[in-house]
Every structure is written in structure tokens, then in C-alpha cells.
Amino acid sequence: MMTFRTDSPKSCGIVELDDDGVVQRFHEKVENPPGNLANAAIYLIEPEVLDWIQEREYVNDFSNQVLPQFLGKIATWENKGIMRDIGNSEALAKAQKEVVFPENNNLDEWETEFLSNSIHQSIQSIL
């Protein structure tokens, strides 16, 4: 699971880790989160997790139904570089606009860092 530090933890799923960086608790968009280390919702998933999901037709919410079943088994990596939270419709729309029409943006710190990073050229080449 990729994680990142957020300034608005109430709007994110917040993880609590052990000393090895393994998820011990997960709090999905709670009023008083116990920290600011957020789930970026980017995963490398083992086949056993996919099997578990396929065996349960009712599963339709990864954060609330799947993650709790695998607490203590989820390794994390904290992204300290480029990260744009798109966890709500406004943030997603802003991110889409930034990629499609970068010339119309009033650049914030994230956008300035993104546009100067080599990953931006890679993304532009596939658009």
C-alpha cells in the first residue's frame, strides 16, 4: 500500500503502522483520525487477496471490506515525493484539468514540482 502525509486527514483513510511499516489499524474517513498517514489507494496485491475477493460476491468496498481482513499483513511505502490526493470529486476534476490543460493552471507547489519532474514527460507521452 502506498501512503502519504495529508493536511486533511478527515477526508482520507488513515493507517496506523507497527515499527516495520505494516498496517495494524485502518480508519476510513473518520471525524477524529489518529494521525495523518493516509492510504493512497495504490496497491500491489497478492493472488490470495484476489482469491479472497472473488470468493465473496458481496464485496464492493475495498477500504471497508477487504483491508480490514488483511490487517497485520499489509506492507506500506510512504510516498514523500509527488502525490495529488483525488479522494473526492472536486480534487479529481482539478487533477484531470491539470493534466489536460496545464497551460490554464495557476500552479501550486505540487503542480510546480510535478511539471518539473521527469515523470511528467512520461505521462504527456501517453496522452
TrEMBL record:
In alphabetical order, the GO MF annotations are: transferase activity
Domain of life assignment: Bacteria
This protein's name: Nucleotidyl transferase domain protein
For this UniProt record, give its keywords in alphabetical order, as a comma-separated list.
Transferase
Q: Name one Pfam family in it.
A: NTP_transferase
Stored SUPFAM superfamilies:
Nucleotide-diphospho-sugar transferases (SSF53448)
The protein's organism comes out as: Leptospira borgpetersenii serovar Pomona str. 200901868
- Does the keyword section mention Ion transport? no
* Start and end residues of each Nucleotidyl transferase domain: 4-98
The record ties this protein, via PANTHER family, to: SUGAR-1-PHOSPHATE GUANYL TRANSFERASE (PTHR22572)
Record's signal peptide: none
On whether Magnesium is a keyword of this UniProt record, the answer is no
